[in-house]
C-alpha cells in the first residue's frame, strides 16, 4: 500500500497553513460537464481536497440544498458510471485527492470490490460513507485495503466512546467529525459540540480530524481550524454553483482565506 493521499494532504496543509479545506459538490449538478468543471475550479481556488457526492434517491443526512441538487442530477440521468467518469477527468486535471461521498447501497448493488477497483482505476482516493458503521464494514474494509483506498467513517456527538474509538481506528485518511446533529446545511454558527467532540477524539487517536456540516464562511473555517485539522464545506458551495462557476470560485476564495487566518 502506498499510504493515504488524503492524510498526507491534510498534514501538509497543517504544516504550511492553519489546516485543510475540503470542498463538497454533487456529481451531475447542474449537469455532468459543469460538475466536473466546478470540481476542478475548486482545486484552483484554495480547496485542498474534494468530496464528490454520488446522487442518491434516499439520502439520510443531506439537507434541502444538497437534496435539491442531487435530485436535479438524478432527473438529468445520473448513473453510477458517471461518478467514475467525473473522478477520472478531475484527477487528470488536478493533484487534489478525490473522495466520493456515497450511501452504501449503491456500492453494494454495484459490487463492493468492483466499485473499489473502478474508483482506484479512475484516480479516486477513497470513500466517505455516512450510513456505514464500522461494525458492518467488513467487506468494504477488505476491498479498500486491496485497492489502496481511504475509508472515512463519521463520528457524531452522540457516539459512545467505544464507537468513536472504532471509527478513528478504522478510518484511513481522516475521520469525519459531524459538527451537529441533524441534516447538512449552512449555519450562522457551527455547533460548539464540534469542539468538544474533537477533544474526545484526540484522546483516542492522533489521526487527522475534519469537521463538517454547517460551515459556510471563511471565518468559520478559521475557527474550526483552531482545533481540527480540516474543515469541510458543502451546502455553501452548492448554492454558489447555482449562480455559476465564477460565483463558485469567489466563494471558494473566501473560504480558503480561513485556512490562512486561523489562530
Topology:
Layout (H helix, E strand, L loop, with lengths): L4 H12 L3 E7 L5 H12 L5 E5 L10 H12 L4 H14 L4 E4 L2 H7 L1 H11 L3 E3 L9 H9 L3 E3 L1 E2 L5 H10 L4 E4 L14 H10 L6 E4 L5 H7 L5 E4 L1 H7 L3 H13 L6
Parallel strand pairs: 1-2, 1-9, 2-3, 3-4, 4-5, 6-7, 7-8, 8-9
Helix pairs in contact: 2-4, 2-12, 4-6, 6-7, 10-12, 11-12
Helix content: 40-55%
Beta strands, count: 9
CATH architecture: Alpha-Beta Barrel
Quick check: average pLDDT? 91
* Total domain count: 1
Q: What structural class results from the helix and strand content?
A: alpha/beta
Distance between the termini: 35 Å
Characterize the largest beta sheet: strand count, sense, and whether it forms a barrel: 9 strands, parallel
Shape annotation: globular
Which band does the percent of strand residues land in?
Answer: 5-15%
How many helices?
A: 12
Any idea what the CATH superfamily is called?
Answer: Aldolase class I
In a few lines, what is going on in this structure?
The chain has helices at 5-16, 32-43, 64-75, 80-93, 104-110, 112-122, 138-146, 161-170, 193-202, 218-224, 235-241, 245-257, and strands spanning 20-26, 49-53, 98-101, 126-128, 150-152, 154-155, 175-178, 209-212, 230-233.
Amino acid at each position: 500500500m502506498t499510504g493515504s493521499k488524503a492524510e498526507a494532504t491534510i498534514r501538509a496543509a497543517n504544516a504550511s497553513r492553519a489546516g485543510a479545506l475540503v470542498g463538497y459538490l454533487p456529481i451531475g449538478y447542474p449537469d455532468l460537464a459543469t460538475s466536473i468543471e466546478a470540481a476542478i475550479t475548486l482545486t484552483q481556488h484554495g480547496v485542498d481536497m474534494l468530496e464528490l457526492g454520488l446522487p442518491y434517491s434516499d439520502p439520510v443526512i443531506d439537507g434541502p440544498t444538497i437534496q435539491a441538487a442531487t435530485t436535479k442530477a438524478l432527473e438529468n440521468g445520473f448513473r453510477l458510471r458517471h461518478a467514475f467518469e467525473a473522478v477520472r477527468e478531475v484527477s487528470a486535471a488536478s493533484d487534489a485527492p478525490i473522495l466520493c461521498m456515497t450511501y452504501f447501497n449503491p456500492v453494494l448493488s454495484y459490487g463492493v470490490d468492483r466499485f473499489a477497483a473502478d474508483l482506484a482505476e479512475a484516480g479516486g482516493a477513497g470513500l466517505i460513507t455516512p450510513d456505514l458503521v464500522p461494525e458492518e464494514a467488513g467487506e468494504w474494509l477488505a476491498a479498500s485495503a486491496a485497492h489502496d483506498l481511504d475509508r472515512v467513517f463519521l463520528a457524531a456527538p452522540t457516539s459512545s466512546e467505544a464507537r468513536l474509538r472504532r471509527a478513528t481506528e478504522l478510518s484511513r485518511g481522516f475521520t469525519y467529525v459531524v459538527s451537529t446533529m441533524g441534516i447538512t446545511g449552512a449555519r450562522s454558527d457551527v455547533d460548539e459540540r464540534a469542539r468538544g467532540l474533537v477533544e474526545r477524539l484526540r484522546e483516542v487517536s492522533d489521526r487527522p480530524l475534519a469537521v463538517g456540516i454547517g460551515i459556510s464562511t471563511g471565518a468559520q473555517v478559521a475557527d474550526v481550524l483552531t482545533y481540527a485539522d480540516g474543515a469541510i464545506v458543502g451546502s455553501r458551495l452548492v448554492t454558489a454553483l447555482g449562480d455559476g462557476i465564477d460565483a463558485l470560485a469567489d466563494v471558494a476564495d473566501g473560504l480558503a482565506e480561513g485556512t490562512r487566518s486561523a489562530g
